[in-house]
Design goal:
Blueprint: E1 2-3, E2 9-13, E3 29-33, H1 43-50, H2 52-59, E4 64-70, H3 76-80, H4 92-106, E5 110-122, E6 125-128, E7 141-144, E8 149-152, E9 157-159, H5 162-174, E10 178-181, E11 184-188, E12 191-202, E13 210-219, H6 226-229, H7 234-258, H8 269-273, H9 275-279, E14 283-289, H10 297-311, H11 325-349, H12 362-377, H13 390-417, H14 419-431, H15 472-482, H16 503-519, H17 524-551, H18 555-565, H19 567-616, H20 620-627, H21 638-693, H22 700-708, H23 715-731, H24 737-745
Parallel strand pairs: 4-13, 4-14
Antiparallel strand pairs: 1-2, 2-3, 5-6, 5-9, 5-12, 7-8, 10-11, 12-13
Protein name: Kinesin-like protein
Pfam family, one: KIF9
Keywords: ATP-binding, Coiled coil, Microtubule, Motor protein, Nucleotide-binding
Length: 760
Amino acid sequence: MRIHKDGETITVSFPKDAASGLINNQLDSLSLKFDGVLENVSQDTVYNTCAHDAVDSVLAGVNACVFCYGQTGAGKTFSMSGDVQNYAHRGIIPRALHHIFKEVDLRTDKVYRVEVSYMEIYNEGLYDLLADNPAAADNLAILDDASNTVVRGLTRVEVRSEEEALAQFFTGKQGRSTAVHVLNNSSSRSHALFSVYVETRASAEASERALLSKLHLVDLAGSERTKKTNPSGEQLREASCINKSLTFLEQVVSALARKDNHVPFRQSKLTAALRDALGGNCRTVMLANLWPEAAHLDECVSTLRFASCVRCLETSAVVNESADPVLALRKAERQVKELRQELAMRDMLSGRGRVGYEDLSEGEQLELQQLVLRYLNGSAQLDELPVDSLKRIKETYKAFKAVAGSWAAASAHGSANGGAADATAGQGDVAEFDGAGVGDVDTSSSGFCIGTAPMQARPSASPSAAGRADSPASNAAAGAAGKQGLSPRVAPPSRMSMSSPSPRTQLQTAAQQQQQQLTRPGSPLLQQGQKGQLAAAAGGGAAAAEGAAELLFDRNALFSKYKHSVADGKRQAEQVKQQQQQVAELKQQIKDIGLQVNSSKEEIDSLSMQLEARKAVTPAGNRSSSSSGGADAGVLDNDQYVLMQQVKAAKARYRTAFDSLRELRSSLDPAVDSLAAAKEALLAGFDAWLAAQQGQQLGATQQIAAWRGDDEMDPGEAFERMELARKAAQAGDPSSTAFFAAASKTGRAAVRSPGSTMRS
């Protein structure tokens, strides 16, 4: 097995079988190209090469997946999890968690929510490694739709720090099923999927918009050849399930590579869980782990062929914005509130009174129905009806409909009880008139009992007071009837005014009346507004007192004061700003140089293709001279010479740009560490300043612990703190404290005995 100089191609040579005879069509060698080949490199190099960009994409709202594939004993679990006893040998999962929370701490302009889950697929059964009872798998089911794949019932734990996330990972790792066989002392007998869910929100302006992304870190069980591992009993059943699921995975990848109409994702739990990673909305990276020895040549070739097939797959990774209905409702409520504020400001600037745009309460609806009833009885004027907003006009129409409905129900009820009694009552009512009306009285039982007017009858020029609908007595009687509420026995007004104002005049007059109604001392609207103002004033006083008390403990406000008003804070804040600017400039330079490197590589490829094409097309004169052994044999023409010079210059530019890119990348990490140190110094200075401002005699560290509510450490806790500091100093990385603290909490020393499995 040979790795080419480009670092992307592997050639596998096959020995000839002498027993096949002289004619032997056996394959001599196999060359396959990949995105990169790593040999004898550190765990840090593996992470930076394979998983660093995928984690960055998750923080930008894009789904990502990193999974390891290979034969048993090839180092898949070591690549993903690493050695928990050695900080330098930690794997992709601990480094990804450190990367995520480091970026979360640096990006202070956004709010992040991080959750983790850990699932195991053992013998085609789903197990929740973070549940209280991981052996119970009845409640887990894989569900998928057009855009997402989820596991129903899987525990998702919110973590707020790297230490909490690592503690969950170490806890779940202890529950994985392992066994011992000939090729591996700690062979994983199951597939494990550790998932990180990241929710990103803006801090203030667009709280309802969120980016939802997930990172799947998959440690697949290794393929086994039973004639090499010699399993028996339960291990034979485990090996059978492992090989079966990996075979189905290869079938799915082959179908995706061929772009078949049907892809058998549901053949196994593994392929169903990896549906997004293989052909959906995800950025996927595969690590092919090899055991490059002659005894395992067939397994290595199988792994390389599978990796080459996976390299041909295409996914559609996009930024995932939240479609949560709760967030959409929150956005709609905020927009409605802003629109109401705009309307209130417009009404205030135009000189209008208080206009209600909110929905009416039950009490207000009842008052509006009573006002409509009084208007129909003649005791209320048209100008008193609310027309100040479209919502009030619609509510008025609804009140008219309610009153008409009550009258229709009363009429139907009266007809059912007997029309004769109603007719007699109606005749009695008519008999009470003084005869000043128009026409003769109709004494029949039919009709509406309002009299019959002759054709030549005309209305009186000065109707009597008894017949006028707008007389004081009539108004008083109608008002008394109106005060009784919605009575079904109330008769409609006997006369209507023959002259009514135009609609425009009605609206103008209604607006004036409404303004007067608002300023009237006895107005219910004014009383309600005064009550609201009094309640707001009383509540405002209490809120102000409470806010003044809370201000003393508002660290954000005090932190802002420290950065802008205190000399040390201003200096430290300026240092943080300079470090942030330096990091941003380095990232921009890396991006620009990376574009130059890619452009130079494309130029080299294009010129090389042109040169090869030029060499292939040789003029006839050159061919004849070459075949005859003339002096011109092997002489380049002018075009080939120019192309060769251009290729040489492009390669020089490529090497220069690549060297610059490597130097910039090496200087980025120290700049990021300097930025983190500057922020830590700023926070430490603020804590010390806050402790001094509070005027207590405790030291800065003790004061911070008292403010946070921490109790005094006992000797055991003090020893553990010292032990963590010692391990971090040995590791040479101050940020390793979270790793050792999480490993200590999960009790990683209590390892299961070799050969045991957690499932039955």
